[in-house]
Every structure is written in C-alpha cells, then in structure tokens.
Amino acid sequence: MASLDPLDLFDIQSQLSEEEQMIRDSVARFVDEKALPLMAECFDQGRFPKELIPEIADLGLLGSSLEGYGCAGLNGVSYGLICQELERGDSGLRSFVSVQSSLCMYPIHAFGSEEQKQRWLPDMAAGQVIGCFGLTEPHGGSDPANMKTHAKRDGDDWILNGAKMWITNGTLADIAIVWARTEEGIQGFIVEKDFPGFEARDIRSKMSLRASVTSELYFDNVRVPDANRLPGVVGLKGPLSCLSQARYGITWGPIGAAIACLKEALDYTADRELFKRPLSSNQAVQIRLADHARRITLAQLMSLRLGRLKDAGKVHPTQISMAKWNNVRMAIDIARDCRDLLGGSGITLEYVAIRHALNLESVITYEGTETVHQLVVGRELTGHNAF
C-alpha cells in the first residue's frame, strides 16, 4: 500500500475542489517563499512585515470571501484554507488578513451604505486602506454588552468618546470600525485616522503575536459624520456577526500552526540521534507524534465540515464556537509538546514551535476565550445561560 501523507492522514486534500487546492497551494508558496524567511526576525524585533501587504493584496486575500468591489468572491472553504496557510507562517499574518477581511471589510459590505462600500472596499481589497476593529474595551473583555464607548448625535454628526483595547492593526490602520453605545442602541462607525481627537497607541512588551500590531484606541470628542455610520444594523448582533466571520477563519488558522510544528518535530526526531538511535525510533516519541497527527486530523475534518455548512448557508454560531475551542486547544497543546520534543533547541527562533506556542496564547484568548466558547456550547446543550 502507498504511504500516507503524515500531515494529511485521511487524505482530506481529495475532498477539496481543484480551485480550493489551487488557492491553498498559491498561498502556501507565498508563505514558504516570502513570509517564512522573515517571520523569525519579525517576531524577534516585534514588528509586522508591512512589506508583504502588496503581495497579500495581489493574491486576492483581503476580503476574499466577499462579492464585488474588487473582492475575489471565494467560498468559505477557500477562505479557511487561506487562514490555514497564513497561520502556518505566523498567527500575526493570519490576524492581519482576518481583521481586514472579516472584522472591517465584512461589516462595511454587510451593513454599510452603497456609498461606503464604493468608497472603502476596493481600496481595502487592494491593501491601500487598512482597517482595525474596535469592540473590546479595557474593562470589558468577554462582556461586550458592558460597553462604555458612546456616541451622541450633534446635528449631522456624532460625538464619540471612549477607549478600545487589544486592537490588531490599530496604529497601522487608516480607518477603525468602532462600535459604540448610542440612544438607539449599539452602532458601528467608520472612524478615519485623521479625525481630531482620535489616537492609536501601540501596546509594547508583548510576548505573543510579536509580529503583529496590537494597539489601544482613544476617542476624545471625536466628531464623526453621520455618513460614516453603518446604517444597516443596530445592536450587538452587528459586532457579533463580524466575530462569527473571524472565528470561522480562526478554526482553520491554528491547523496550519500545528502542521508546521508537527512537520518540524518529525524532521528533528528523524535526524536527532540519542543513545545511538534516532529519536523517532523511541516509543514515547512515536506515541506523542501519533497523538499530534490524530488531533490535527480531527481538526481538519471539523473545519472542512464547518466550511461546507457555511457555504450551504447552514452554519450555526455554536458550531463555530466548538471548532474554535477544539482547534485552538489542539494547536497550542501540539506546539507546546513539539517545543519539548526539540529539547533545548526548541526555545530558539531557529525553530518554529516556540513562536507558534507563544502566538497561540493570544489566539486561544481573542475572539472569545476558550471558556466563553465552552459556555456557548454548554448553553446550546442545556438551554441555560451560564455567563
């Protein structure tokens, strides 16, 4: 019998269409040839590789699942595969594309006026305008309903006050999609970076997502024209629907990180000799590697099924929560264990495991902590809200 692909034991690739495989392979080449040579240095220096944005845009990866306005109009599985390959490079790369696509372009596409769509989406798809998403607040975390940022009408404008925390792309962004409490309910606003009273500051001294921009946003009597208000939604369903889009991509991304760690561990244990035999001939090592492959396979099957449900218009937020919980937990456990299999070498940036393990500490926290997603599933099972 032919040998199986150790990174795809159930031949899940055969369940992808020719277009889906082509998209995955093109992003994989970009990651291998352009991104990976930079990522260890970027992580070490604490900088996002902005020089990659033009090629990311040229590949059609920004707003890839949206229709029209210069967007590629790909299906959900293709978007998932994009996230998988980008995070195989680094969580910071996938976070950049995820925020731009799911948290900034999506709400303009879903809730914006035609004028807003025409003004912003083509330039965002081309990487000429970068966005960030302002929902999380310093005191709020997992409780977005406890929002303090507010906007009050003033003639044809709104006066915006408040602060947002842990904002990917914040100081990189040209616009911020900011959610604020109003007398009518929570609404979204497109806040442009040159509006007086708007300030973005980088969060420094991070030990995770170092190759990503993370910021604080401050709004001090920022005057926002009503033309910059997203007219198509009022209430938390607006930002929560954006989070569902982003969380879907996150179910795929950590699979890429886990695959990168497993491949590295397979290569290392095959080459490393200890007690006159390769590490890979050791039973304890094989059991650990086999468990990694099992968990990656289960995550691959879960995300593929989730993608097919999404493309059929049948996906449920609880299913996204279960996949996010399962797949990020899978990846962080594998990254940590692969770091251990590498011994002392595993603590250096010459290898990818420590970088992925540290990044995944953020991924398991943002877009809903592991506990939040467990409680979402628990609520579905029991009918009781334990938040």
UniProtKB/TrEMBL annotation:
Residues 236-381 form the Acyl-CoA dehydrogenase/oxidase C-terminal domain. Pathway: Amino-acid metabolism; tryptophan metabolism; Amino-acid metabolism; lysine degradation. Residues 132-222 form the Acyl-CoA oxidase/dehydrogenase middle domain. Its EC number is 1.3.8.6. Its cofactor is FAD. It catalyses: glutaryl-CoA + oxidized [electron-transfer flavoprotein] + 2 H(+) = (2E)-butenoyl-CoA + reduced [electron-transfer flavoprotein] + CO2. Residues 17-128 form the Acyl-CoA dehydrogenase/oxidase N-terminal domain. Keywords: FAD, Flavoprotein, Oxidoreductase, Transit peptide. One of its GO terms (molecular function) is glutaryl-CoA dehydrogenase activity. GO terms for biological process: fatty acid beta-oxidation using acyl-CoA dehydrogenase; fatty-acyl-CoA biosynthetic process. It comes from the Bacteria. Belongs to the acyl-CoA dehydrogenase family. This is glutaryl-CoA dehydrogenase (ETF). It comes from Wenzhouxiangella marina.
